[in-house]
């Protein structure tokens, strides 16, 4: 199993793409920059797993569905918390801002289905990877995910400010093999990070200490592009090897 980065940023400019990760061949975590995915990879997708409904995580969902209508005969299932899916249905694909693809039938079935995922319960996704959503400290129905495949556990924070439940739940499930954590702002903007329910490097270090495990590979995503240089310079978290995720990077965990 793998996580492959399509886009790793919490906003966009000419270089940085919005958050979107392939989880194996059949699942996408968030869809901010999903329109960059080649057609042959889009066609193997069965599920889009949304961390939450902020625009940087859902923007391209409408565009990949638009491209799928003419060639797909099975639904794309969009999963997330009830609050997240409600926002997407009501404010994005509502037949006004963009088509309601859940009402567009192809071969007798809708091209889009929504499925609410229960919190703190393991759900098996296509590709035999398991996912457990855990509420985190961020708006728009945000959840972090524990991912499990072949006994390997991965913690994926999604967007969050300082939080406790995700790390506590992860500890209960065993020692993670990898951690993917958001860092949106540099330490000089710590107050903005706190006010917007995000992390900066020093806050991320505090979060990783809550996990209580040493020497786990740490992968960082969701930086605001205009702080890239400053954040990169600050990401020397003592005792923790840190990898700043970029488009095309791949994390193997099988
Ligand atoms: Zn975001
Ligand atoms: Zn967000």
At a glance:
Helices cover 23% and strands 26% of the residues. It has helices spanning 39-42, 55-58, 61-68, 82-91, 165-173, 190-195, 201-211, 228-234, and strands at 2-7, 20-23, 27-29, 47-49, 76-80, 105-106, 109-110, 112-116, 123-124, 130-135, 143-149, 152-156, 178-182, 218-221, 242-244, 250-252.
User: From the helix content, strand content and strand pairing, which structural class follows?
Assistant: alpha/beta
Catalogue the unreliable spans. Answer: none
Total tally of structural domains:
1
Helix content: 10-25%
Beta strand count: 16
Principal-axis shape equals globular
* CATH top level label: Alpha Beta
- End-to-end C-alpha gap: 5 Å
By CATH, the architecture is named 4-Layer Sandwich
The largest sheet, given as strand count, sense and whether it forms a barrel, is: 7 strands, mixed
Strand-residue proportion? 25-35%
Discrete helix count: 8
Strand order of the largest sheet: 8-5-4-3-2-1-16
List the secondary-structure elements in sequence, H or E: EEEHEHHEHEEEEEEEHEHHEHEE
